[in-house]
């Protein structure tokens, strides 16, 4: 029933992505699937030439393929960017669950909080004083929203998310389970007795269309604000320190750690397990490989970077090649030393 | 009273592990302990010869020791594998807490969910539509179980665990606090405006006897499933990306990150803080050292691996030795250059 | 109203930190701020000479500056350590929120638990049998406290924190959201069938004035205890394995992982994403740089350490310089080889 309701014809799906149908345009599609696992009623896609043959014999009812590609599936949608078309079609065939607007009776919502009538507030959710929840936003079981927090419309806040006081969240933001936003930044001043907390009285701003992976943490600014820019996507267990300014459409893979006051400009791509010292500026368009390490204060120019500490990828590769030839270098040096020794002997004999 | 109830004689414990008693077999034991801290009523173990002397003078009431070992404790159980025997005896002396079957009145359980009568459901737990909880399974405070989730029997789901929709969990699975299973994988397709979500409509299968450490995350497959095989043990804060297939009896230490579509075959051992690029295959029996980094698409053969990017441990060590001799190489080169210069001078003088 | 209530005169603030006022001592201050963002009513600080000029023209109502520094702001507090004074003043101007003592009706507290009358227990909190909560301690929404847990006075336990059974927490401890204390350590014994759990029946002791960052995990000892010493500060997503003994006033940055039975003595400073093998001892005063890796069993002496595996910082830098000169070394070697070849030819010709 559910499946039937969202089924679409190949024609409808082609129209959605501006594609060209080859074959029977009335075929009904109700699911996206991979080339290998697809069955009747499924749509799949192929973009890379090396999978054209597999796609040609897929049991999918329809294959999205590049325009003019040598893909022989009997029913196809041809488009310029098959993977993108597949993603857009998936949004239609598998729309995210939209629970009915409601506030669960076990939720604890402050009297001064302002929750939109169309919001969904799950069991055991907690919303503090003067906080606001926008239209059609979902807050799932056990999430805890502090005081004076603003959450926009169409957000999905998954279970056990914690948002501290005074944080601002835009529209269409997705926070996966266990995300923590606005915990104190890590800053202390030492005296003879030990450490005093440096004030952590700033805030966090998460802009529209941001997605944060499970258990990711974004710390509150010491003074001022920590910002995650519009359309930025961050994977699981990433650490964003106090006062960072992450731009728009930045992608950061899992377990990367970003120290305080780092600026990452728009459209950067950061691998997993990267480590940033504080006060780094990554310029727009830079790509940093996984496991890289960047020293505090550095300016990272556009281009591809790699290694600890980071270097341009080309240099990194060249140096790595040199390192792997080290045994050879030592052998050459040894042989050359022997030749010099023989020359010395010879000269000495000549002189005698 | 509690302690008394579970006390066992040395005889009973020896029988349990197929060991041989030397000394008084009627001594009562009620606790496992270390060689150094043990007191009356405690049992301890020794396996490594260098601790035989310490074990000989331990105040433990009984020492588990290798067969025929030179351990002089007056009461001993001799077995082939003392550490294993110690672990098995600990299971009996310190059985995990088994709360009485019950459903806490603050738990929110969907009408269509099927919870076994012998299950324990703690306070503020949430269980979604069409989900099932098996016999004797415990779900502790604040855990959140989505819709259409299957959980087997004898599982322990610790507080604040989050399981998204459609995930399947086997029998005797232990999920520590803060574990997140089934959050969306990290996949996007870029167009001019920014990033579109690649469909994350697959599922996660956690097989029998798996244990996942605190705050570990296992992502949902894009299409198909992410799998953690039977008997696999994963430490804290490990990231398992979408569509990974982790085999049986794999061990993965803390903070390791595994990108999408990685296959780790049975019986592999992975250190902590290791980083995997996507589409890697680790063949059965491979051992990967802590902090290693593995490039996307690589096939890792059986053996011991180390470094960034990984190399066989022997090669890694050899190359590291070469690197540490670099200052020496440059010195040699300098000296040799001087000798060549002198030869050249000499020859020139001879010619004059 | 709130702001007005905590406003202080420059005179009062100067007295608090033992500073000397230059300018109008009756000016009212109600907020700390950065040099750049400060406005009327704000106090800021400057310590580094390169910001003296900026501080001189800041719109802050008062600037904390080093004694006798060339800072021309009309109202100043001069002290020996401006940053420390700023932190102490912030504690007064921005005291942490103190919710009224209360137990939320949705909290589930065991009959045998002992909660101080002045404690704050938030919504959906769970406290187990025989646990104790000290004077003025706050436990926020959805935190889960096991059985026989002791929590001291003036602690702040943020939302979704999980504390397992038998853990002991000192006074003035701050645990940020998602912290997990006392989950089982990662230890197994293998036999033919697979892995048996090594007993994890020890405990965890968190001493006074400790602060743990969001989603950090401290594992229970196998036998004995895991300890975090007085005044130690740990950042987000740090893993502390079973039986670790972390001393007093230690600082550990985000995402560092510490294997079992590691000892870190008092006053060490550990960077982010550092990895520790098991059974390491770090001696008091050692400083370990971010992303370093330390092999099991190592003793780390006082000093600054860096790299994988760690080396003294000086050696690390020297070796890195050598590595970066590798292309040059190979060029030199090539040239020298050519010179030797020419010498050989020459000699041969001479001989003919």
What attributes characterize this protein structure?
homotrimer, 352 residues, alpha/beta, UDP N-Acetylglucosamine Acyltransferase, domain 1, 3 domains, twelve-stranded mixed sheet, 6 helices
Written account of the structure:
3 copies of one chain form a homotrimer. The first copy, chain A, is α/β, with parallel strands linked by helices. Chain A has 3 domains: 2-93, Udp-n-acetylmuramoylalanyl-d-glutamate--2,6- Diaminopimelate Ligase, Chain: A, domain 1 (3-Layer(aba) Sandwich), CATH 3.40.1390.10; 102-312, 3 Solenoid (UDP N-Acetylglucosamine Acyltransferase, domain 1), CATH 2.160.10.10; 313-352. In chain A, the strands form 6 sheets. In chain A, strands 8-11-14-17-20-25-28-31-34-37-40-41 form a 12-stranded mixed sheet. In chain A, β5, α3 (52-56) and β6 (62-66) form a beta-alpha-beta unit. The N and C termini of chain A lie far apart (105 Å). The mean pLDDT of chain A is 95.
Q: What is the helix tally of chain A? A: 6
Mean pLDDT reading of chain A? 95
CATH topology of the largest domain in chain A: UDP N-Acetylglucosamine Acyltransferase, domain 1
Q: How many runs of DSSP E, i.e. beta strands of chain A?
A: 41
Q: Give the class-level CATH name of the largest domain in chain A.
A: Mainly Beta
Q: Low-confidence spans of chain A: pLDDT under 50, at least 5 residues?
A: none
- Gross morphology of chain A is flat
Ends distance of chain A: 105 Å
Using only C-alpha atoms, the radius of gyration of chain A works out to 28 Å
Topology (elements, then pairings):
The structure is a homotrimer of 352-residue chains.
Chain A: H1 2-6, E1 8-9, H2 10-17, E2 20-22, E3 28-29, E4 31-32, E5 42-45, H3 52-56, E6 62-66, E7 76-79, H4 82-93, E8 102-103, E9 108-109, E10 114-115, E11 120-121, E12 126-127, E13 132-133, E14 138-139, E15 144-145, E16 150-151, E17 156-157, E18 162-163, E19 168-169, E20 174-175, E21 180-181, E22 188-190, E23 195-197, E24 203-206, E25 211-212, E26 217-218, E27 225-228, E28 233-234, E29 239-240, E30 245-246, E31 251-252, E32 257-258, E33 263-264, E34 269-270, E35 275-276, E36 281-282, E37 286-288, E38 293-294, E39 299-300, E40 303-306, E41 311-312, H5 313-324, H6 326-351
Parallel strand pairs in A: 4-5, 5-6, 6-7, 8-11, 9-12, 10-13, 11-14, 12-15, 13-16, 14-17, 15-18, 16-19, 17-20, 18-21, 19-24, 20-25, 21-26, 24-27, 25-28, 26-29, 27-30, 28-31, 29-32, 30-33, 31-34, 32-35, 33-36, 34-37, 35-38, 36-39, 37-40
Antiparallel strand pairs in A: 1-3, 2-7, 22-23, 40-41
């Amino acid at each position: 029933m559910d499946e039937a309701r969202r089924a679409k014809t190949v024609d409808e799906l082609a129209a959605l992505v501006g594609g060209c149908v080859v074959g029977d345009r009335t075929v009904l599609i109700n699911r996206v699937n991979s080339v290998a696992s697809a069955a009747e009623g499924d749509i799949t896609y192929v973009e890379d030439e090396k999978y054209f043959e597999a796609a040609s014999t897929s049991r999918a009812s329809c294959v999205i393929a590049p325009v003019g590609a040598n893909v022989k599936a009997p029913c196809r949608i041809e488009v310029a960017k098959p993977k993108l078309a597949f993603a857009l079609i998936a949004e239609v065939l598998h729309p995210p669950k939209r629970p009915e607007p409601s506030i669960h009776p076990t939720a604890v919502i402050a009297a001064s909080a302002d929750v939109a009538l169309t919001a969904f507030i799950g069991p055991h959710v907690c919303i503090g004083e003067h906080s606001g929840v926008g239209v059609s936003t979902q807050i799932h079981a056990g999430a805890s929203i502090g005081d004076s927090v603003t959450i926009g419309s169409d957000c999905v806040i998954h279970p056990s998310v914690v948002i501290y006081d005074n944080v601002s969240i835009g529209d269409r933001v997705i926070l996966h389970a266990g995300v923590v936003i606005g915990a104190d930044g890590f800053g202390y001043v030492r005296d003879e007795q030990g450490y005093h907390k440096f004030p952590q009285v700033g805030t966090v701003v998460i802009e529209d269309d941001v997605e944060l992976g499970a258990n990711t943490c974004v710390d509150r600014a010491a003074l001022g604000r920590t910002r995650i820019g519009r359309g930025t996507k961050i994977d699981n267990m990433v650490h964003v320190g106090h006062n960072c300014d992450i731009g728009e459409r930045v992608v950061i893979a899992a377990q990367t750690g970003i120290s305080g006051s780092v600026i990452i400009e728009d459209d950067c791509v950061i691998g997993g397990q990267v480590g940033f010292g504080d006060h780094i500026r990554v310029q727009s368009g830079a790509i940093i490989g996984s496991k890289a390490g960047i020293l505090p204060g550095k300016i990272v120019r556009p281009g591809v970077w790699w290694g600890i500490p980071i270097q341009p990828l080309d240099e990194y590769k060249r140096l790595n090649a040199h390192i792997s030839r080290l045994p050879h270098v030592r052998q050459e040096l040894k042989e050359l030393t022997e030749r010099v020794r023989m020359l010395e002997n010879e000269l000495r004999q000549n002189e005698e």
